[in-house]
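Thread: Newbie trying to understand structure tokens

Hi all, I'm a second-year student working on a class project, and my supervisor (Dr. K.) asked me to get a predicted structure for one chain before our next meeting. I've only ever worked with sequences, so writing a 3D structure as a token string is new to me. If someone could post the tokens and maybe explain what I'm looking at, I'd be very grateful. Here's the chain:
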Amino acid sequence: MAWAIPLFLLFIGIEYWVARKKGWKYFTFSNSITNLNVGIAERLLDTFTVGIFYFVYDYLHRHFGFFNIRSSVLLWIALLICTDFIWYWYHRLAHEVNILWGAHVVHHQSEDFNYTVSARITVFQAFARMMFWSVLPVIGFPPAMIISVQLVHGLYPFFIHTRTIGKLGILEYILVTPSHHRVHHASNEKYLDKNYGDVLIIWDKLFGTFVPEEEEPEYGLTKPLNSHSFLWQHFHFLLEIGYAFRQAKSWKQKWNVVFGKPDHIDPGIRPVLEERFLFRDTTGATTRRLHHYVLYQTAVIIAVLFFFLLLEKQTPVFIQVCVTVLILLTLVNSGAILEQRRWVFYLEYARLLVVFIAVYYCWPYPALLWTAALVQPLIFYFKAAIEQRYLRLLYGAAA
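---
Reply by user tm_fold:
Sure, no problem. This is what the structure looks like when written as tokens:
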């Protein structure tokens, strides 16, 4: 998991270099950062969830498995095909059932389409997929085989999130190609809810959801999110479901809100929730300093995540919790800075506090506590001046 990060960044760098050399404007700063932020969170939380998934698969295999399948070449191939078939139906239902769309919608929010978009996977999606794939241990496939195939199966979709690769000839009839997946991410009317396949395109052709790429796709949601907020991207549709559920008059209407199609959620709900939760208090024009600071934060957090995954077994649980909180605070902070929120100052303070707690846990010297005790009153006394200075450095004179 750790070494996948530099490999992932290498391919993003190659794609960016090719697009820039060709003069293709396939990357925008804000979208790329928010895409990476979602991926960082998913990769971080995977550290804690993969073991849970293995336990679930193992329990189902031991108590409910119909067969005791042994490893062989043909059965590995059969498992890969079964995994891809289940993925098709999970993916299709994730577009057709509100509660599943609430987990999957994050993947479709970007208005860019490049390798950074493949990072837009949430831990909610991972749990939803686990429920669908739980049929595999019941059939009799061992958990180790299931997890191994999932890792291999999960690598392929990364390479189809690109506009730099055209159509691939005969492979277009067998595999899901970048051309097929561009259609899936498009918001054009003719392309909506098509090409659900992950590795094999045969399922879409078999079940009538295949459409070839013709006109240039437009990417993102049919109703753009217009927000870089890390939290809002993850929870906006779940909040819309909750709001619509409360407004529904009958149990049948409530059922349709949760398990009906996303089209049936009133589009007028989102502006109401935006007014309530987004707190749009932006300060002014974007500055180069702001972009540099966000880029610096992202680079540092990616490095922290890499070493965290690499050294996980040697890291105390308390430090793991501190690193997790620090990374999540930074992801929220980056989105808030891109939207020029004034309250990011308090997130900065929270991050410093987490760092101090982690340092004191590793080196519990009384001098650290005395230093904190002396600094805290000064921070509170000069808070207004420090906050104003920070916002001006970050957002410019308009702050």
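A couple of things are worth pointing out once you decode it. Residues 232-277 form one domain. The first helix runs from residue 4 to 22. Feel free to ask follow-ups in this thread.
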